[in-house]
Specification:
With 200 residues, the protein is an alpha+beta fold. Helix content is 20%, strand content 40%. It is built from five helices and ten strands. The protein has a six-stranded mixed beta sheet with strand order 1-6-7-8-9-10. A four-stranded antiparallel beta sheet has the order 2-3-4-5. The longest helix is centred in the first third of the chain and has 12 residues. The termini are far apart. The N terminus is likely disordered.
C-alpha cells in the first residue's frame, strides 16, 4: 500500500498520470559491467591507472564506464561516442567512487528507459580497520534516450531498507519526463550520509 501512495505522490509531483504509469508493464532486466564482461578501450593510464570500458546493454545500447583518479562515471548510448557526449559521462562525485557490477535496466514495451546502479562512495570522515576511508552505498537512477542521459534520483541504501523498490518507483514514475540540466536530482526516501557525499 505504501508503494502505491509513494508512486501516486511522485506522479503528482512530476505531472504524470498515475493511471497511465500503472498501466504500462515495466520489467527489470540485468547486465554486467564487470571488466571481464566488457571491452577495454586502450591501455590503463600511466598516471593513475585510469581505464575505460564498453559493456553490452539492452536494445542496442552500451554502457560506458570510465575511471579516472579513483572516480568512476557511467553513461549510456548507442555507441561509445554517443555515450561520452551525455551529461552522465561528466557526473562524477567529489569523493572516490566506484560502481557495483550489476546493472538493472527498467524496461517498458520492450524499451529500456532507465538504469539503476549501486555506487560505493568513499567517506573520508570514517576509516576501516586498515585506515582507509569507509564506503557508503547509494543507488543511482539514470534516465536513458530518447533525450539526454543523466542521473535523476539517489537513494541512500543504509537509510532505506526498501532502497531497491524506492529506486524502481523513482525510475518508473519520473525518469522518462526528467529534463537533464533543468530538473533537480532528487534524494528519494530517507536522507543519509550519501546525501552529502554526492555533492561536489
Amino acid at each position: 500500500m505504501k508503494y502505491i501512495i509513494f508512486a501516486t505522490a511522485i506522479a503528482a509531483l512530476f505531472g504524470t498520470d498515475p493511471a497511465r504509469v500503472a498501466a504500462q508493464p515495466v520489467i527489470s532486466s540485468y547486465t554486467s559491467s564487470a571488466p571481464k564482461d566488457c571491452r577495454m578501450i586502450g591501455k590503463p593510464s600511466e598516471l593513475d591507472g585510469g581505464t575505460t570500458r564498453i559493456c553490452p546493454g539492452k536494445s542496442g545500447l552500451v554502457l560506458l564506464v570510465s575511471e579516472d583518479d579513483l572516480r568512476e562515471v557511467v553513461s549510456v548510448g548507442r555507441n561509445r561516442q554517443a555515450a561520452a557526449k551525455e551529461p552522465a559521462a561528466q557526473a562524477w562525485f567529489g569523493p572516490f567512487s566506484s560502481t557495483a557490477h550489476t546493472v538493472e535496466w527498467r524496461i517498458a514495451d520492450g524499451r529500456p528507459f532507465a538504469i539503476i546502479q549501486r555506487w560505493l562512495i568513499a567517506d573520508n570522515s570514517e576509516q576501516d580497520k586498515d585506515g582507509r576511508p569507509s564506503t557508503k552505498a547509494m543507488l543511482a537512477v539514470t534516465r536513458l534516450p530518447p533525450g539526454q542521459v543523466c542521473h535523476v534520483a539517489f537513494v541512500d541504501v543504509a537509510a532505506n531498507p526498501d532502497a531497491n523498490e524506492l529506486a524502481r518507483q523513482a525510475a518508473d514514475n519520473f525518469a522518462r519526463a526528467f529534463k537533464c540540466g533543468k530538473d533537480e536530482v532528487r534524494t528519494i526516501g530517507q536522507s543519509g550520509r550519501t546525501t552529502s557525499l554526492t555533492k561536489r
